[in-house]
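Morning. Coffee machine broken again, so started the prediction first thing and wrote up yesterday's gels while waiting. Chain of 329 residues, entered below exactly as on the submission form.
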Amino acid sequence: MSSRRLSPRAVWPRGNSSNQGIDVITKKDRVPQISALGGGLFLLLGAAVLMWAPKTRAQAPARGQNVVPVYEGFWRQADGSFDLLFGYYNRNWEEEIHVPVGPGNTLEPGGPDQGQPTHFFPRRNQFVFKIRVPANFGNKEVVWTLTSNGVTESAYATLRPAYAIDEIVMMANFGAGGQTGFDPAMMGNQPPKLTIESPKALTVKAGEPLTLSAVASDDGKPKARPMPAYLVGQSHFVPNSATGLRLSWFKYRGAGKVEFDPPQTKVWEDRRDGGNSPWSAGWQPPPVPAGNKWTVRATFSDPGTYTLRALAHDGGLVDYGDVIVTVTR
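Came back before lunch.
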């Protein structure tokens, strides 16, 4: 098992970019003319190279990699206290990893349990949870340590000025500003308001559906915007995503499988075509249901204790709430 110390606010890979390794030639006299025969040979050789080239899957592993904890930064509250914001980067494209709270998933000091997830979706997941620290936190740090697939890594949260963020930074990182990182429509945006109508603690038998409901509203900023049908040259540094109010239920904690009906929009950055993700080509926010009320049925495969989270998102800012479900045989 290896262990790595990670500096806060590290830049992590954001997906497959199609603009790496491309040289732009600006002087026409340096480009030789290609005859019809030569062009045909060139195309055949190019096809042969493409057939020989390794598949993308080899460059982006589906499973077997670890999850990296990430410190996103901090912001100040009106009373002078601070929120330390955390996310994670699952290096896998398909493997969802469960790491229970304990030695392999701990926050210190004050841990091990400080509200962090135990279920980790693939790829980049930003601003997943926060920890409130007092105004006199000073030069202290909070350390989140994760061990998964034999690798231990830690994120170190401090109040160093370089890690200060605000709502504009959060919106740009989610992709609300598009590929430039900023859109005037972001200005003045307020986060959605979420109310969970279901009881905060529920009990159900494994295999039996459980109905959950939540109400979410938004100020209409930024305005609804679908993802382009084709994604060309996405930046590694600033993602692009659809905007407009949406709500998803998902498993935040728990070892067993949870099936949602209807299927929920993904909450992680799946940029693949047809990914049912706000970061996927062609995705657009579904219509807001009547009364702004989202209802879903959750079915659990195994007994245990689960935390289900409702995430209201406008493409830039979020609000969320949790329901704890005890599943019996």
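Confidence is low (pLDDT under 50) at residues 2-58. Going to sketch it on the whiteboard this afternoon.
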